[in-house]
Amino acid sequence: MPTSTYSELRAQLATLTTEAFRPELAEIDRLSTLEIARTMNGEDRTVPDAVARELPAIAAAIDATAERMARGGRLIYLGAGTAGRLGVLDASECPPTFNTAPSRVVGLIAGGPTAMVKAVEGAEDSKELAVEDLTALGLTENDTVVGISASGRTPYAVGAVEHARAHGALTIGLSCNADSALAAAAEHGIEVVPGPELLTGSTRLKAGTAQKLVLNMISTITMIRLGKTYGNLMVDVRASNEKLQARSRRIVALATGAPDEQIEAALTAADGEVKNAILMILADLDAPAAARRLTVSQGHLRAALHATEPTA
C-alpha cells in the first residue's frame, strides 16, 4: 500500500471514537490486576446505556426485519474480524433456540469460515468480496442484510449494505461511531457509541459487547414477533440433545401445568414439537388438529389458542 494511502487511513482512524487514545489510562499496565479488572468492569457498565440511546432505531429495524422474514426472507449478518464473528455466532444459535432452518439466519465473515479463527489478510478491505458473498446466497427483496462494523467504515460491511440496498433488500448498518459511512449507506442506521476503548482501538472490548447486545435484540425480538415464543418460553426450541429434551418437557410443564404423563404423551404424538404439544394440552386437541390450527395462525401459539374458527 502506498505511503499516501497509509497516511490517509491513519488520519481517518484518528477521527473515530473507537480509536481514540485515553491519556488517563497510559499507565494501566502499572496497576494491580484487581485494579485493572475494576477499571474494565467500570468501562463495561457504560455499554448498556449506549445501547439504550439507540433503542428507537433498533426497534424500527427489528419491526422491518420481522415483516420481511414473515414473507419468507432471511436475516443475513456480514462483518469482518470480531464483528463478523459475532454475526456468525448469533446466526448459529438461532436453529437450536428457535428451530429455524440454518438457511433462515446466516452469518457471513470476510474471508470465509477460516476467518473465524485466523485473520484473513485484506478480506475486510474488499467491497467486491461482500458482493460475491451475497450473490452466492441469491439475495432477494425479502432478505434483511445487517452490516456490522465497529468503525463504521469497513469496506466489506459497507459494500454489503450498498449492494443489498441497491437490490431491494432491507438494510441495517450497525456501528460504534457516530456519522458512520455504514449507517449512512443503510436504510436503518444503528450507531451505538460506547466511547474509546480501554486498550486503544481494541474494538473486541466495549464495541464488541455493544454489538453482541444489539444482535441479541435483533434475533430474539424478531423471533418473538414471528411467534417463536409463548410469553418468555422458547416453544420452538429444537431438542437436539439430552439437555434440550429435558428443557422441552420443562417448557411444556411451565406453559400448561400438566402432569408428566400427559406431557410425555403430547410430545410423543406431536413428534417432539413443543408448541404443538402445548396447544394439544391447553386446547384439548389431537396432534393433527393442533398442527392445522398452528398453520392457520402462521405458527403463533397465542393466536392459535384464541382461535374460534374450525380447526379442520
UniProtKB/TrEMBL annotation:
EC assignment: 4.2.1.126
Single GO term (MF): lyase activity
Listed CDD domains: SIS_Etherase (cd05007)
Pfam families the UniProt entry points to: GKRP_SIS_N
The keyword Lyase appears for this protein: yes
Pathway, per record: Amino-sugar metabolism; N-acetylmuramate degradation
Keywords: Carbohydrate metabolism, Lyase
Keyword GTP-binding: no
Residue positions of the active site: 93 (proton donor), 124
InterPro entries per UniProt: Etherase_MurQ (IPR005488), Glucokinase_regulatory_CS (IPR005486), MURQ/GCKR (IPR040190), SIS_dom (IPR001347), SIS_dom_sf (IPR046348)
Annotated catalysed reactions: N-acetyl-D-muramate 6-phosphate + H2O = N-acetyl-D-glucosamine 6-phosphate + (R)-lactate
Domain SIS as annotated: residue spans: 65-228
Subunit structure: Homodimer.
Family membership: Belongs to the GCKR-like family. MurNAc-6-P etherase subfamily.
HAMAP family the record matches: MurQ
Name the record gives this protein: N-acetylmuramic acid 6-phosphate etherase
Native source organism of the sequence: Streptomyces narbonensis
